[in-house]
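Sequence in, structure out. Go.
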Amino acid sequence: MELPLRLFPAVILLMSLDRVGSVVSDGAPSNSTSAAPPNTTLAVPTTVPKSTPAVVTTAVRNDQKKGGGNEEDSGTDKEKDDTVGSKSEDAAKQLDCPPLGLESLRVDDSQLQASSSQRTGLGAHRGRLNIQSGIEDGDIYDGAWCAEHKDQDQWYEVDAIHLTLFTGVILQGRSSIWSWDWVQSYKVLLSNDSIKWETCMNGTKEAVFEGNRDTDTPVLGLLPVPGAARFLRINPKSWYINGSICLRAEILGCRVRDAAGGYFPETEPTLRDGLDFRHHNYQDMRKLMKAVNEQCPDITRIYSIGKSYNGLKLYVMEFSDNPGKHELGEPEFRYVAGMHGNEVLGRELVLNLMQYMCREYKRGNQRIVRLVTETRIHLLPSMNPDGYETAYEKGSELSGWGLGRHTVEWIDLNHNFPDLNNILWDSQELAADKSKVPNHYIPIPEYYTKEEAIVAPETRAVISWMQDIPFVLGANLHGGELVVVYPYDCTRDWAPKEYTPTPDDSFFRWLSTVYASTNLVLADPARRICHWEDFQRTNNIVNGGAWHTVPGSMSDFSYLHTNCFEVTVELSCDKYPHASELPAEWDNNKESLVVYMEQIHRGIKGVVRDKLSRKGIADAIVKVEDHNHDIRSAMDGDYWRLLNPGEYQVVVWAEGYFPSMRRCRVGMEPRATACDFSLTKTPVQRLKEIRARGGKIPQDLQLRLRALRLRKLRVTTKTLNQRREKQQQQQRERKGV
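Output:
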């Protein structure tokens, strides 16, 4: 049986104050108006009405800067009703209905329809909040829904599938670097059958909502009286005079059920794993980390690696069976989130991971126990806390696409690390023998260390952190797309995009595949693309350079300056998911987060020691055959080299020691192969150490030095004789001529 359309009067809502909250504005009965069914193009009127009902002043802006232009309907009566606006905003806050999910893709393309569209790429399915267009306009992936006609009969329709209590609409202009299009005012209509429609009222007048004044800033319009229906239409009434009717939207509403004449929101989703699923500002984050530390004091430690520009500390949570100390043979792992402050899902997932690991360790979950006892794990939930606080103030739907991305100094942290790629490539091109060019531990260039260098304090803190701890594996958690990105991020010769592999390309592809294949959304072949790039064609992983060049990325710097392999995980189409979506996002990523950490135990590991003293040798170079990227041993002589299964010839050498070589086999099992090395000091090194101590040179060392110098003398004599003979031969040839 078809349910009649009902707008909520106050008396009905008061029946459910404990779940819904009160609405203090009463809506007068509205007259039904007919509209054409979906997929029908309405006739273009020959005249534009000279007056319209009052404008509802419930719009909430991020930015009051006007985008220019006049309303298409020049005679609009902008009568303000602040009382209604204030009341409706209070009501919406009490209701606190989440977004339906146009941005997060929970709303399917089949649920979106429109009166008309300019072309396929500007169809109804593209009218999603914060959707991004490609570089070229005119393809099938443009950045908004745009109506074919410029008249007041155009509409954009959302089918909620279920009976829904609609509370508001968020509108945004078109994403394009070439066009300026947005809707400046609009009406909202509700229906249960998509045939008979009722216009939302503001008292006795049809409500007209204030829209956008630029292309990017989301604007919230709250319904004066929340209405229960299945379908919602946005009916643009005016638009930027030099543009077209284009919009991106999100709809706020609570799914409801009919119960004894009243309406109630559906129950909140059950909290998975008993975790704290909400958005945590700086103070809340500190409290959560402190609570985890108090629950698991034997395996956790909180420390700070520095401060942001505004003085907020960059807190890290460490998990280890011996917190605060590097243990011989135990690799170090890191997750970094919040590099872009408005990409908040990574921050919440890392905080959830802290709670989960603490609880599961106490429960005796052997998988987590093994990780904690065999790995030292560092979790940095917010690299850019200043940017996060900026986005947090606006909230999940109103922060837009870019607010809070940069630091207070307007620095993009993922472009702020030293560009070591081009230093390496330039050196290789200039060198006569490329094998002599260092392929790892590339030093930071001098210009980057100067006071006037544009280097954010957050970047400086992370670089210092990388140098203090011998990280082996890490991941940088981002948002706004669904893909795992592996180095190099920067292309050669400044190409806009070009596949640019590292010497460890196969292992990076393995790491990326491990995360992508275990992520519930990435692994879903039926999922919709986020914006305009289909990464399913490459199994949801992509080389950074092949996507778009990023000079100065953290992943490239980590690979070239330290031993650490790092990928970038784009976690969600929605940079700032609503809190109601966090439990599902945890389910999507929980297995991926854990299994990725376990990959640190692949390849070979060992300790490089002095053959006589058995002490560990720091900074010993570990070179793997056919891999033009070396690593170095840590302070105690231990090392870890991530490798795919196979048999490898490994050579290790250190200053003052003879090199040592052995073959090491990496199996399919998820544990590293032990491959230790003992190095013998050269006689010259022993002599230096003895002389430094002021000791007597042993007779055996004197004999070895004598033999070594004699060999060197013979080699140099042979070289000089060959050179002299060559010169004499050339002289004879010239005389003969």
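Check: Residues 172 and 217 are 6 Å apart (CA to CA). The first strand starts at residue 6 and ends at 7.
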